[in-house]
What does this fold into?
Amino acid sequence: MNETRQHFPFLKKRIYANTAASGLMTQELFEWRQKQDKAMLLEAFKTVQEGVDILNKVRETVGSFFKCPAHQVAMVPNFTIAQNMLVACLPKGSRVLLIEEEYPSLNWPFEFMDFKLNHVPWSEHLETRLYETVKAEKIEVLAISMVNWVTGYKVNLSLLQQLKKDFPDLLIIADGTQYCGTEDFDFSTSGIDILAASAYKWLLSGYGNGFVLFSEEVQNRISLPYGGNGSVEGDESLKQTIPLNKRLEPGHLDVLNFGSMGFSLRWLQQLGLENIGAHNKVLSKKAKNLFAELGLLDEFTLSRTCHSTIFNIKGNDDLYNKLSQENVICSQRGSGIRLSFHFYNTEEELAIIGDILQRE
It folds into this structure.
């Protein structure tokens, strides 16, 4: 995937190991956005329907990208808004299972409302603990990140598939923000009922756009009391028949921002999700080996066979500042330094980072 680097001007002088914070913009997306802004400046949209058509094309692109029918796709400004809207409509008093130290926007809506909460800690046997808790506590809702935002711990998809098989009434809600775009993903066979994600990270779509995917089954299980002109695309006669996905789109959607998401997803499809996933798998393995040899990983990370390309290494302010001075862009998260790699990163960059860390 090294040839893809030419599409990212930012990479000419710096090592970008910070996609977990925000993905890079391609030169092509920049040019597309300029073209759209120029058209708005000089021509404006000829009709309201033109904007609707653009957004419906984006909906179809999202569905194609994740193997989900377009009518089961909702477009939202970000994961947090969608999660709050969804959780507010779940039956109060439901037995909910959460993982400790998850992304606040995933857990907080449940904690702010009236639910019976169970928490399990991140541990070597996470999947086993989750399964046993669902069974023992008769859990009704499981909310989980596909990839943890601080540590990069990746939940084994086979767990969710097994849970859905053994406990078909379990509602599984997943945050895909730190996962979607890192490899090929088939929502239809995932076992997940609702997957929501912001698209500004691994999907390289810029800010202000995201999506929610609904399983066919869940559309008959939950009811959302939202609606507006955007839900019916201006046709008030549809007020009584608003589908589930359009309940999350009550108002105007930003054509530029969601158009950017559609553009980037089509661009990534041309690269091939299988190719992206294969490259990222190699990066993950080599990065883990490198950081393990340097003694920079905790025992839980070392014990996991399923991990993303996000690594939280041991390091203080001095090490973070050193990496920054060497033009390695990363983040401080938790008690360490978070390095995250995508398909535009290379094994040569890993070697450079290793050299910097060894000099400390």
In short: Residues 40-270 form a domain with the Aspartate Aminotransferase; domain 2 fold (CATH 3.40.640.10).
